[in-house]
Amino acid sequence: MWGTSKQGTIPLSLLQEGGASASSGGMFSTGNEKIVDHPMSLNLDQGALTSFLGDDDDNSNTNATKLQQIFCGATGTAMVINDGRCFVFGSNKNGELGIGEGPKSTETPVHVPLPDPVAKVSLGPNFSAFLTTTGDLYTCGYGGSAVNGMGCLGHGNMESYQSPKLVDSLVEDGCYASDVHCGEYSMTVLTTEGEVLTCGTGSFGRLGNLETLDQLYLEPVEMIAGDDVVQIASGFAFSLALNKGGIVHAWGKNNEGQLGAGVVSYKVVCDGVVP
């Protein structure tokens, strides 16, 4: 891992200086930040990882704890171990870590209790989403406001939640998620049927629906309906969708050309970008 660790986003105690992939540089401090200026490997030995996670689960004695996935966000980090449990650390100013009524940040990993094993975590700057192996989606953190827009959690309101809450509307519609990405104030979801859904703030066309209105629930991006999307990605205020034919659709804020459409503009809605 490498980068700037503020509020504990990098597990410094697991870094191995001897495993650095660069011969120069290292780790140094700037104010209350720790900066790792080149990639360094993590010590993921059973004892080190278990100690770091504070994992005293009853199963840890029979099944060796192994890191299965790691997810980095703007201000937080999530680790998923081999039994599907998820541990988070970093900034929690809006409840985005999903650890309940707790501190505004934590350098100590905290287990996020969910009913099923975790398959994917998307850590946004203000809210987060947890996708389970069963295809259920849970969100938590900042729900929005009249100023910033509302509905990014997909619960039909602008409430904020300190713990992960199941997105009931997907369950009611019989939809299962295969991927999720959190932006600044919007969320993009890919279903197991290849359909792309969005919710949250509509400014800059970031929802892909030709409007700038907010959406409180996840709604289909109709312009690419039936396009058999296989992968999605999102930035702060824009999203991309790749279909089976190799065409990338892009929409949202494009003030710095981040959509790759060959122009710089206020917004682009679902333009096809062919690699």
Concise overview:
With 275 residues, the protein is mainly beta. It is 5% helix and 43% strand. The protein has helices spanning 46-53, 168-172; strands at residues 3-5, 15-16, 27-30, 33-36, 41-42, 67-72, 76-81, 86-91, 105-112, 118-123, 127-132, 137-141, 144-145, 149-150, 161-166, 177-182, 186-191, 196-200, 215-220, 229-234, 238-243, 248-254, 265-273.
Report the β-strand fraction as a percent range. 35-45%
Number of strands: 23
> Main beta sheet, described?
4 strands, antiparallel
Distance between the termini: 30 Å
Strand order of the largest sheet: 6-7-8-9
Outline: globular
Helix content: under 10%
What is the tally of helical segments? 2
Rg calc = 19 Å
Mean pLDDT: 88
Secondary-structure element string: EEEEEHEEEEEEEEEEHEEEEEEEE
User: Structural class of the secondary structure composition?
Assistant: mainly beta
Question: What ranges have pLDDT less than 50 throughout 5 or more consecutive residues?
Answer: 19-23
